[in-house]
Hints:
The chain is an alpha+beta fold. It contains 4 helices and 9 strands. The protein is globular. The longest helix is centred in the middle third of the chain and has 18 residues, at 74-91. The model has no long low-confidence stretch (mean pLDDT 95). A 3-stranded antiparallel sheet has the order 1-5-4, covered by helices on one side. A two-stranded antiparallel ribbon has the order 2-3. Strands 6-7 form a two-stranded antiparallel sheet.
Amino acid sequence: MYIAFDEMPPNARVWVFQSTDFLIYEKVERLSARLMNFLEAWKAHGKPLKASFSIIYDRFLIVALDEASYQATGCSIDKLTHLVQDLEKELGVSLMDRTQIAYRDDNHLVATMHMVNFRAAISSGEIYEETTVFNNLIETKGQLQSEWEVPLLKSWHKQWLPIA
């Protein structure tokens, strides 16, 4: 059962899917239509799941689930994963590549870089402690608001900083 994203509670579980490229309007529209249909019918053990989604910066797909009424099961999560994989093929985009790191460049635009190159950019000083990164490992909507877009020094990415 689809619920407006703004109405999802702070403890709603989230999944962050990141596109390696900017999503043009037509792709956002198609993605939105498919997700709306999927979430309207999404169930776990026959029970409707209260879920929502948001597309942020035309690059991030955030799916939220209010587990207060019923929790997601392995099968229901698999169905979400399969939908996202189908959307990748249908739209010709990458949404599940966890080797891509999203950050804000010097112009404050969202960019992505392969983690190997990202680590090299840290070593060369191109990316530094205050570079804003996107922590796609967050688990709740509350964290989306407070811990998702943060300086590198406050994210899991800090493990790649040189030891002083």
